[in-house]
Amino acid sequence: MSVFIVAEIGINHNGDMNICKELIDLAVNAKCDAVKFQKRDVYKVYSKDFLSKPRESPWGDTQLDQKLGLEFNEDQYNEISRYCKSKGITWFASAWDINSQKFLRKFDLKFNKIASAMIVSEKFLNFVAEEGKHTFISTGMSTYENIEKAVNIFRNANCPFELMHTVSTYPMKDKDANLNLITTLRNKYKCNVGYSGHETGLAISYAATALGITSLERHITLDRSMYGSDQAASIEPNGIINLVQAVRKIEKAMGDGVKKIIDEEIPISKKLREHL
Length: 276
Description:
CATH architecture: Alpha-Beta Barrel
Strand content: 15-25%
Order of helices and strands: EHEHHEEHHEHEHEHEHEHEHH
Largest sheet: 8 strands, parallel
């Protein structure tokens, strides 16, 4: 089974549809399988006290200005949907509250995503699971107990899912990757496991691929120096192109694990063993 590669645009579009379309084009050119966004009802996710606090951004000087500046409205998501369809790439989004999940139901999306922040909300998990769509469940900032509850909710709802090993630091340090947890999760919960990476570079994602992940999600950006909290943990254009090419090569190289003499070895064998 081929690794499902998701280019996480998230909020790296900075509220600009032109940047958004450039990022979609990048994902298409790199031959990713899908692009993903993040959707929040700002007034549900953040408290009034938090939103009133000062924060300088391109959109104003409060947290509210910054958060609203990063959110696309329904017309803009309709444009995203139209553009992705014209480019032949799937899109979906991770909702951070029930209102946002209701919003996403307006679109004919094939997939759902549980962000690591939301895996602890049983109400939200149940709300998503009732849709019956294949769901990617990120496991950052969670315990085995949290993961077990999520798995049970989706299984009880007969909703297809896969876990995604995730470490929720931006960027993640190499020493914190703990890639062996991919195998642990697969064995413990008897399900497919992907990897959502927030590291700099590509080596850890290559290693995760070799461990048999079924999905791979990485943030993409046009330039890591752009404004935004996720930019530093994102991959620039050449990086995502190289990542997809390498993942496809690794998939082929892993083989079936059965020892055999391949046809191309036979003449070499005769030549190198002639003296025997």
